[in-house]
Batch of 4 targets.
Target 1
Amino acid sequence: MSIINNANPGSSVEALYAVDRVITKFSQNDKNKGKYLPLDTLMSLVAPNSLFTGTERLENGDFKRLNPENKVKEAIEFWGKTELWELKSQGVRSKFLLDNTRELPKRLLKSIARKDFDILKGNGIEPFLRFVIFFLCVDEVTFVGLKPLDRQKAGELVASLINSDAVVNAMSLNTNERHIFFAYAHMMGFLEQVGKKQYFVDPTRAIKVFLPQVFENSNELFFDGFLNKLNHCLPVFDEGKYRELVEQQMILDTTHWPAEKGVKLSASLSIAIERLTQERIITCSLASDSAIRYSLTLPNGQEKMISTIQFLGGKS
């Protein structure tokens, strides 16, 4: 079931962080080298009632507490299956010795990227990815369009632009799903917070995770080659196979982003490229022998033509 639905496995970001913190701390202890943390031990260490708050209110106005044992167990099983950790019958441990909770967003994004998804029929991580892709398409909710995305705006855009009949499970982004979607999307680097519960769509941090892999064999690429490699990692960006499925089959009105495919980039990707350039992680140029030139969609009506991209390094 969908991770952005509060009632389903994998939905508790709090449980995920709590479980990961215990697992990584256990695995980094020299005394535990080669060992697995037994699941019953893990369960006993991660069960504070205060962590798991639902959306249903009690008569006194307080939010009803969720069953912490269930949320912890679901987090272990669900994210263990994505290979975020090594999960076996004897217990669980970090996949790599240097894994730490500070880098959980990057590790989580990479674990998702290693999987293949039936983007129109799946109902686990897929609804989350479908909404990420949808909002990456809409220029107005970026630093270019300057219309912040909040829970109300998100619901309105989905209701007005998405054809729910194109997928097996309805794409409505219900009120009990929005806070979880925002939590995961911000955590993994697809959104940047600009106000109280307000965000702009900006995948800079998510893209940064994949740059070492994209430039593994060459630190300079034509931009179409860069885009192909980036989408090979996670095909949610312009021209990616998941992105095209969402654009072609799920979205009712495509006037909210550029129609010139292969020429004009979406505002979300353009902003990411510009920010990575400003951070001196990449540099872009316009080569005279380039067959394909891409136009970045930037704030204040600015446009920049590029055809090549070079990786300067830096931490992902």
Note: The chain is about 40% helix and 15% strand.
Target 2
Amino acid sequence: MRAFIITGTSRGLGYEICKQLINRNHLIFAVARNHNDSLNEFAARHDCKLHFVKYDLKNTDGISELIRGIMERVHDEIESITLINNAAQVTPLGNIDDCRSEDAVKSIQTNLLAPILLTQSLINQTDERNVHRIIVNVSSGSAKDAAAGMSLYCASKAALNMFTSCIQLEDHKSLTVYKVDPGMVDTSMQEVARNQEGLAVANFFREAKETGALKSAEDAAKKIVRRVLASQS
């Protein structure tokens, strides 16, 4: 049996990743602020053990305990444990001098600090286990393409990419770490960006929507899930 910890599963890409990983041979921990009942219903129909873990990743002080609580429910016969750091927020949007400091802090906590601490906690708490660990960080084109009004999101995704590259160079037993860029996906987060008044790239996002250039969350998740499952072997 394989275990999966997926963040941001209540909607969008995280929801689709979680749904597509539902399998009778998988143990899934869906971490999100809000519950999506349809995931539990789908899991029940497919004889999959799925646990919803209600947690706000802005609460970075509690992440070690979050992972500890999850690991207490993972038995020693598990073949692999995969952490998919998907949760992110695109807000606040706008010039940096117009962003409230508390909103900037929440953005960095969710997009960057939480994945870092989740990675650290998972490595620390599984080091004594004879299990393959896989950590997947969901990136974005915004990590390399600067955009006025999106400085916090772009910076946090760029930093997450570099964090991933650094961990790949470290010496950890039975650990696979990589990033995936799903491309532009038609999610509620993308909708917020394209409808943001005064945002320089909003027109670009609106045109992408109107011309059908956005991927569906389902299709983007399929690509990620294929790679995740391939990295289990």
Note: The two ends are 12 Å apart (CA to CA).
Target 3
Amino acid sequence: MSRERPFIATYIEASRPFGVIYIGSTSNLIRRSFEHREGRIEGFTKQHGCGRLVWYEPYEFMTTAIRRERALKRWNRAWKTQLIEQRNPDWADLHPWLIGEASDPRLPDPNDGGVANFLKRLEDGELGDE
């Protein structure tokens, strides 16, 4: 695997659609999802075959990702399932998309405002030159 930039995130791995799920947080989502896929992490995910990355939220700080992980672990299963299905109703594996081998299989985020919102923000000077 190539050396990649750390990607802090809270994530959900699943064994299959509507199967066993695992919630975790990591400082490097690409590496961690690869490890789950390959069964390189001993314990729950390897035992239950949780190698399909079905949901994640990126964070700037690891402490925030850990707080979110702990909160999600207290949720009931129906809420966790709904969280996954809001953007990934087919429970598609997101790892190939993360590493650039496939297009993003998820539904667009209804809160991102789309291209029109992006262009308006750009025109209004809300987005700086990068």
Note: The two ends are 29 Å apart (CA to CA).
Target 4
Amino acid sequence: MPLSEEEKVNGRLNGEQNEPSGREGLVMRFVYMVLISVMLSFAHTVLGALTIIQFVVMVINGGEPNARLAEFGTDLGIWIAKAARFQTAASEVKPWPWTELD
């Protein structure tokens, strides 16, 4: 039986993650945290632009959202969640581009 969209997203967020075998030093973690913070800032800017574009599309299409934009929003949200988990030390898995995007 195929998985529902909600199950797919839940699996991407909470599914098995390949945790690194060894821990990196705190200095390298700090470097990654700074880089990911910059990337998160950019991602939030993209999310804001995406929100405005999707709203305009919905106004033009009588309330029907663009499926590609919605899927991209889901992928972006999952990336942001994975980045936040790394930033808060809830996970040792670095988000894309250091690991697969899923």
Note: Helices lie at 5-14, 26-60, 67-87.
